[in-house]
Design goal:
- This protein is of the alpha/beta class and 239 residues long.
- The chain has one domain: Rossmann fold (3-Layer(aba) Sandwich).
- Helix content is 43%, strand content 21%.
- Strands 3-2-1-4-5-7-6 form a seven-stranded mixed β-sheet, with helices on both faces.
- It is globular and about 50 Å long.
- It binds S-adenosylmethionine.
- The site of S-adenosylmethionine has 21 residues, from helix 4.
Length: 239
Amino acid sequence: MLPMVDSQPVRARIALFLVFEATATGREAAMTINAQEFNQLAKTVFAPIYPVIARQILETTGIQGGCCLDVGCGAGDLGFAVLQQADLAVGFVDASAEMVALVQHTIDAHELQQRCQAVCSDVSQLEVAANSVDLIVSRGSVFFWDQPQQVFKHLFQALKPGGWMYIGGGFGNRQLLDQVIADFKARGEEERFRARIQRNLGTASRQQLDTILKKSGIRDYFIRHDESIGLWAVIHKDT
Ligand SMILES: C[S@@+](CC[C@H](N)C(=O)[O-])C[C@H]1O[C@@H](n2cnc3c(N)ncnc32)[C@H](O)[C@@H]1O
């Protein structure tokens, strides 16, 4: 059960940092992800990974409150996990209208309108005020971005001084990864799944991510990368 928070300050925080206007450019992007199928995975096989990743994010960044964006949020499971563990208002952003509808359904079902807002937009086009966001999280989406360098720059300007981004992909820890692999094996999809992990979370992807960050001009970052945790760029904006 998601927490229900009904406080004016949280609602004000939401209004401050996202501009949900008609300029948002939602699209069914050149993505092969089926929203319903992905949601099914997110709510079953992947379900245990989100609270673990959320904890890793909050422990690494030290963020305890303020405004958070989950970009490329899918059905919103990482953002909702973050919401359960910290006093954050969360904006959910995805290019897929179907994914955003799933997020909205959860917001409505748990009466989280005071604390959450969902918008359909390509992350590169997202209208977000400069210096307004404490934490930007994203799991499994960066691998789809057309111009990641520009997106990192765009998101970085949205961070408050002292804010953090935690962007990448992974399955939480070794045990959870093994469980997910076992599930894909049972469906006869182990090889394809392992190939995707290798492509997105392997050494070449790490090097690519490092290059992208360097080219984007972001200086204060580090990369967390190993087989257990996955591949994550952790970015800080100086105060
Ligand atoms: C693999 S799913 C991950 C979803 C979610 N973050 C999770 O971990 O459960 C990738 C998501 O990124 C979204 N996405 C890909 N490219 C995007 C872009 N340029 N702007 C916004 N969303 C994007 C897709 O629509 C999809 O929902």
